[in-house]
Design a protein that fits this description.
The structure is a homodimer of 137-residue chains. Chain A is of the alpha+beta class. Helices cover 38% and strands 23% of the residues of chain A. Chain A has five helices and five strands; from the N terminus they run ααααββββαβ. In chain A, α2 packs across α4 and α3 (34-43) crosses α4. Chain A binds a DNA duplex (30 and 30 nucleotides) through residues 8, 11-18, 34-35, 47-52, 54-55.
Amino acid sequence: MDLQDKLNQKGLRLTKPRQVVMTILERATVPLSPQAIHQHAIENQADIGLVSVYRTLELLTTMGLVRRVHGQDSCEGYVLASPGHHHHLVCRTCDRAVEFTGTDNLIPLLEQLQHETGFTVDEHLLQLYGLCPDCQN
Amino acid sequence: MDLQDKLNQKGLRLTKPRQVVMTILERATVPLSPQAIHQHAIENQADIGLVSVYRTLELLTTMGLVRRVHGQDSCEGYVLASPGHHHHLVCRTCDRAVEFTGTDNLIPLLEQLQHETGFTVDEHLLQLYGLCPDCQN
DNA sequence: TCCTTATTGAAAAAGATTTTCAATAAGGAT
DNA sequence: ATCCTTATTGAAAATCTTTTTCAATAAGGA
């Protein structure tokens, strides 16, 4: 099911800004801020408003197609979400990001914590930072 | 070594805003935004400026005494940090946060990723979300 | 108590995000 | 193909949030 269908199914419409933002995120290799996405759009002769970028990101995020990525201090930007549960490994130098899944390793930690704290744990945010092969020199 | 000494050691001074922010964070049970901290200060008859709250949070963060906590979508606020590397488990309903250490569980995952991606990994951000005992009903 | 200078608070500047609203255009119905 | 309804857009304004600037203040060593 493509974006068109996913939107129509909810009574929403596939519009130029939505197509453009989606395409930019599909091609991106690093997390992009709303401003950066807007910039990319303009450079690609797609004349969409910054406001629509914000609105589209919010929509795509609630639809689970896009995910927000955080840094330790700042909020970095948005990346395309591949299906299922996953996380990002971001290069500190060039901001390139790769996605990974498979956090079975965390399960013992989660169980131990639930036991110790009495909290139930149902979601987690895991992001790794390092250097990509190109930036290691 | 108390805050006074830690600051003086670096040629910095213990001032009213710094004391106040520190005290508020020491008493807090949930992550607080700069605005929230400022509000608390005013309610406690401590007349400090919002600007100083920002400056103090930045200072305390670089000193490792305070840590920034993130939500999935927004950047939530600041909490007191215990020394060393650790993470947070945040209640989705009441925002209460508990700290935990012990991320040995992550090491196999990190090693596997370094191998698969060619990235080196040297930092990570891990936050868990769930429900605290009180909010489970 | 004095002196140096780190720090403060208020205002202004700079940025980021949200709201408002008339004009536009998606896409189901005809 | 064409209409019609209404979701969506873009621009401007409003609203926050965060950072800078700078003269006045006050920490804390001498």
